[in-house]
TrEMBL record:
This is Poly(Hydroxyalkanoate) depolymerase family esterase. It comes from the Bacteria. GO terms for molecular function: hydrolase activity, hydrolyzing O-glycosyl compounds; polysaccharide binding. GO terms for biological process: polysaccharide catabolic process. Residues 1-31 form the signal peptide. Residues 411-517 form the CBM2 domain. InterPro entries: AB_hydrolase_fold, CBD2, CBM2/CBM3_carb-bd_dom_sf, CBM2_carb-bd_dom_sf, Esterase_phb, FN3_dom, FN3_sf, Ig-like_fold. The lineage of its organism: Bacteria, Bacillati, Actinomycetota, Actinomycetes, Streptosporangiales.
Length: 517
């Protein structure tokens, strides 16, 4: 087993990463932790343990609680407070045991290509099988499923929220990393990783795009996210809390500045990021002076409260579907949308405006929100087709079905020729990153939009991109500018776009045939 000499060594590293929490003692509970030997499809070769409190409602909520590297489901059951909280509030806890080694032992797989694809295999599919088992066996509520975990389990928490956003209502990640932080098996374990090496820095758009591309076509509400990190954590650096905040606020279309901060307990700083209706979608805790030892006493209670499991259930009736969505006043860079108001028994608090690229395919993602029945979308690319939908939200957090779809094509832009020059930032056995793909205006007049086309070698697959609208057809990739990088003066360049791709092991080919118009 490789030693993490750059962070912690010997027995100290093994002890901290095996427990991933302060040992709080066996939960005071009448029920017992039970291992389930056969729970369904299990490509991750995981072990499942479940804690069902003696007293629970007919359709209980489900919490998946995941240990750190070197740990186990029973160990996290013993060393955290989730089981005692389950006794108090009547939810079921699943404690998976990971068996992936990645050079360290019992780590959740957040690095492989299979794990990063919905239904691709490995640990995520095994965890979904465990949830399905609890829903079948104990009538668990499929609308109240939550994820939490420490270190490797915290990483897997953010991972599951990205790959299976339709399964989870919310998640609480202790000492985790953003989704797609690990580029592959060669980038693991954390002690020797580029992800946790202390210099990871991507833009919010890059992080957000990684999540949006994890489940192409998903247009439903995203699970809310709670993040925890100690300021003195050097094993999984504290700086990664900022990267996680950037990822999830971008996914929700929120500002990078919190809408509120407070101090729930001495040494805890909580930052909250709410949408225009006031609903907190992202919540981050900085624990002053804490190392790699979370969750500490009392923190699980805050996570369960964030999930909404400490209060009685609110009304679950969604608003009616917005009707009559229409577009008007379309220009080269924007369009105006209107629709008919929804109705709701607790009151409509706002609308989510969803946008997808192209006439077909593409993923609907949130373009913005509106408190009224109109919205103006700006920063679009010239000569580009987009589709829009709208959904309503109410005061209880319920979301309506999406409206009808309206399609627009922006007007032609102005300007002349351009060029595209790729730069290989990094390569590894089965993948590479092109950053930047430099776009230069080679004409004598300003251009207000550009499109680059290139060809991926056979067997190569685009796994991530940022700062552009990307569509693929076979091995042909088309990249179109977005609002902030489409306008270029004569001779000016933009270096904001880049992408990541996977390829067969041993294949050294790179994309070719770059053209810009």
């Amino acid at each position: 087993m490789r030693r993490w000499t750059t962070a912690l060594t010997g027995a100290c590293a093994a002890a901290l990463f095996a427990v991933m929490t302060v040992i709080l003692g066996t939960p005071a509970a009448a029920a017992a932790l039970v291992e389930v030997s056969s729970f369904g499809n299990n490509p991750g070769n995981m072990r499942m343990y479940v804690y069902v409190p003696d007293s629970h409602p007919a359709s209980p909520a489900i919490v998946v609680a995941m240990h750190g590297c070197g740990g186990s489901g029973p160990g996290f059951y013993q060393g955290s407070e989730f089981a005692s909280l389950a006794d108090r509030y009547g939810f079921i806890v699943i404690y998976p045991t990971a068996t992936q080694s990645a050079g360290f032992g019992n780590c959740f797989d957040t690095w492989s290509d299979a794990a990063k694809q919905r239904g691709g295999g490995s640990d995520p599919v095994s965890i979904i099988s465990m949830i399905d088992y609890v829903e079948r066996t104990y009538q668990g509520d499929p609308n109240r499923v939550y994820a939490t975990g420490s270190s490797s389990g915290g990483m897997m928490t953010q991972h599951m929220l990205a790959v299976y956003p339709d399964v989870f209502k919310a998640g609480a990640s202790f000492m985790g990393v953003p989704f797609n932080c690990f580029a592959g098996a060669a980038d693991y374990p954390p002690g020797s990783s580029r992800c946790t090496g202390g210099s990871m820095d991507r833009t919010p758009q890059q992080w957000g795009d990684a999540v949006r591309q994890a489940y192409a076509g998903f247009s439903g509400p995203r699970p809310r996210v709670q993040l925890w990190h100690g300021t003195s954590d050097t094993l999984v650096p504290y700086s990664l809390l900022r990267e996680s905040i950037e990822q999830w606020t971008n996914v929700f279309g929120l500002s990078q500045s919190p809408t509120g901060t407070d101090t729930p307990q001495a040494g805890w700083t909580r930052s909250r990021y709410a949408d225009p209706s006031g609903r907190v979608q992202v919540e981050a805790y900085s624990i002053q002076g804490a190392g790699h030892v979370l969750p500490q006493s009392g923190m699980a209670r805050y996570a369960v409260e964030f999930f909404g499991l400490t209060t009685s259930q609110t009304d679950t009736t969604p608003p009616t579907t917005p009707a009559g969505l229409a577009a008007s006043g379309t220009t080269a860079t924007g369009t105006s949308l209107t629709w008919t108001a929804s109705t709701d028994d607790t009151g409509v608090t706002g609308y989510d405006v969803l946008r997808a690229p192209g006439a077909t395919g593409g993923t609907f993602t949130q373009a913005g929100t509106s408190a009224t029945t109109s919205f103006t979308d700006t920063g679009l690319s010239a000569s580009t087709t987009y589709r829009y939908q709208v959904r309503a939200r109410d005061a209880a957090g319920n979301v309506s079905p999406v409206s009808n779809t309206v399609q627009i094509t922006t007007q032609a832009g102005t300007g002349g020729a351009c060029s595209a020059t790729p730069t290989v930032q990094s390569q590894w056995g089965n993948g590479y990153v092109i950053q930047p793909l430099t776009i230069t205006n080679t004409s004598t007049s300003t251009i207000t939009g550009w499109a680059v086309t290139f060809t991926l070698p056979a067997g190569h697959t685009l796994t991530g991109s940022w700062n552009a609208t990307v569509t693929t057809s076979g091995q042909t990739v088309t990249v179109r500018s977005v609002g902030h990088n489409g306008t270029l003066a004569p001779g000016a360049s933009t270096t904001s776009f880049g992408f990541q791709a996977s390829r067969p092991n041993g294949n050294t080919a790179l994309p070719s045939g770059y053209t810009c118009a």
